[in-house]
Amino acid sequence: MTMLEDVAVRCGLSVRRTAGVMGVARSSYTRWKKRATDNVPLVASPGPRKMQAADIAAITRDIASLSHGNRRTSGTAALQAKYRECISRRDLHRNWFAMNGCDR
User: Fold this and answer.
1) Which residue of 24, 29, 56, 75 pairs with 66 in a disulfide if CB–CB is 3.0 to 4.6 A?
2) pTM of the predicted structure, to 2 decimals
3) In the predicted model, what is the mean pLDDT of residues 42-59?
């Protein structure tokens, strides 16, 4: 029994109502429950898995060498194309913003 089901039983509510009170969509709850019974990760990053190991030092060095453009991301498209097999565009941008002290 999951924690959500346990709370529902203790409070005498339906799982649907308990999920709503906890701020969880019922569809998300049922998806997580199915994944748990199938022994797969409950939450996974979207998109295809990257096939090559990332050279973090090289990526960090290349990110640090980028200049700031009008939108503060000049050169990131070429950098993502260079490393597309080992890091997602989302993670590359997340790392770039973190290195430059930007809050998105």
Assistant:
1) 75
2) 0.41
3) 74
